[in-house]
Design brief:
Blueprint (H helix, E strand, L loop, with lengths): L2 H27 L13 H5 L3 H9 L4 E4 L14 E4 L8 H12 L3 E5 L21 E3 L8 E3 L8 E3 L5 E3 L4 E6 L2 E6 L15 H10 L6 E4 L7 H8 L1 H18 L17 H14 L3 H19 L4 H8 L8 H16 L2
Parallel strand pairs: 1-10, 2-3, 2-10, 3-9
Antiparallel strand pairs: 4-7, 5-6, 8-9
Helix pairs in contact: 9-11, 10-11
């Protein structure tokens, strides 16, 4: 065996030994495990913020319907139905308010959220004006969950309200309305997909729905879409302020006079010769040279006939027609000849 063959075999054995040692170390030190990674909500959950609540109530045996707008709700829900309204109360019209309140009068359960300060009987909130409940901003903010109990038969629930509003110094109020009831909440996001599993939020929702055990549940989930101006002011207010200041500075800059005022020039009358010259140049630029020449010839001929004068060859050349193209130089020369003949004694 040659020396080159021995070196090749040695290198091959060395590579096999390194690969075997690495494989043995990896098999003893690597641990295989599975881990769940949150990749975001699916399409249905992104479209419906109460999708988890809908699935929960459906698995608990209730008939649940999710609708986007108030107009998608039935005109006359059943007497035992529960309706959760996510749209702000101050945008609900008087007719829609009466339609929702009729649900409570017939024995249904209306769950609505309060998002602004309100005094009973005042303002233009047709829905809240019907209840003796005052909403106001609190100076202190509660960070932890609060105990909630609907009745004496149910256990105490821990619910975290993320709102600085108070309804008669509480986070929620339940009002009897006709044969049914109305529940006012300062934080409707309790039942949203991201917070339903926190604390006892799911139990609180189930307790509210269970107060009307025989009816269906309607979840109106679409809130008002903010306008472009509201979105810009909410997310780009610094840029808007800078733009407005820039526009004001530009208006101020361009409104300043750059020099003294110039007095308008007084209108000067031109001489008749200047008007005739300007008119003739205008006519020449627009192809009226032959007409001008013909008019001059006719005028000179009449003057000469009246005076009974002969002009000889210059007159014949000036009054005769030519097949040659008329140029500006020829026109001027002919007009000057006609003028001399007219002035000749």
């Amino acid at each position: 065996m040659t020396r080159r063959g021995i070196v090749t075999i040695f290198l091959g054995l060395l590579i096999l030994a390194v690969a075997g040692g690495a494989g043995l170390w990896l098999s003893q030190n690597l641990i295989r495990r599975s881990e769940e990674v949150f990749t975001g909500y699916g399409e249905a959950a992104r479209r419906n913020p109460f999708y988890a609540a809908e699935r929960l109530l459906a698995r608990l045996g209730r008939a649940v319907h999710s609708v986007r707008r108030l107009n998608d709700l039935p005109e006359t829900p059943a007497a035992a139905d529960t309706v959760l309204v996510a749209v702000p109360t101050y945008v609900v019209s008087a007719a829609e308010s009466q339609r929702l309140l009729r649900l409570g009068e017939t024995g249904g359960h209306l769950i609505i959220g309060v998002r602004h300060d309100h005094e009973p009987g005042q303002g233009h909130d047709h829905l809240l004006n019907s209840f003796p409940v005052r909403s106001h901003r609190a100076e202190s903010t509660v960070m932890g969950p609060m105990p909630v109990k609907l009745d004496d038969a149910m256990p105490l629930l821990q619910v975290r309200f993320q709102s600085n509003l108070r309804l008669n110094d509480a986070f929620w109020q339940q009002v009897r309305w006709g044969q049914g009831r109305v529940t006012l909440l300062t934080d409707m996001e309790l039942f949203a997909n991201g917070r339903l599993a926190d604390h006892d939020h799911a139990d609180f929702l189930w307790a509210l729905v269970r107060q009307n055990p025989g009816g269906q549940v309607w979840l109106q989930y679409r809130t008002l879409v903010p306008s472009l101006a509201q979105l810009l002011w909410r997310h780009a207010w610094m840029s808007l302020i800078g733009l407005m200041l820039t526009l004001l500075a530009a208006l101020w800059h361009y409104s300043q006079r750059l020099g003294p005022l110039l007095t308008p020039r007084a209108g000067e009358q031109r001489r008749l010769a200047e008007h005739l010259q300007a008119s003739s140049r205008f006519l020449w630029r627009h192809g009226a040279g032959p007409a001008m020449l013909q008019a001059a010839r006719h005028y000179t001929l009449r003057r000469l006939e009246r005076r009974r004068l002969g002009g000889g060859e210059p007159l014949a050349a000036a009054l005769g027609d030519s097949d040659q193209p008329l140029t500006e130089h020829a026109l001027i020369h002919t007009l000057q000849t006609l003028q001399r003949l007219d002035r000749s004694p």
